[in-house]
Amino acid sequence: MFDAKRLRAVCLDFNGAVEEFPFPRHPEVSTFKVGGKIFALATLDAVPLAVSLKCDPELAERLRAAHPEIVPGYHLNKRHWNTVSLAGALDDRLVLDMIEDSYDLIVARLPRAQQLALDWPGRA
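Structure tokens predicted for MmcQ-like protein:
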């Protein structure tokens, strides 16, 4: 089961991950970034808790079709982002995999030097 504390810990456990609050009109929105790019965002005091994650477009559609807790990204590019309800129905492993996939999608687009500095295992 995910709560705000666990979500924050999981997101910040990735190499180079930082938490920022870049939206002055929405200071309650936590963004988790690597290399200056967002890989997860959430309002950690929201009930129910949800997180928006970057996702491969084809996988995003399959996940949405299979899980009612996963919907197109709220206020995001709906082709590349999913918003995931963490109210308890989804398997923790699936949520962890989606967070890691989101991080990997962002790091994959960073310059090679940044990937090396992050000791990213997905680098070629």
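The helical segments are 4-12, 57-66, 92-108, 112-117.
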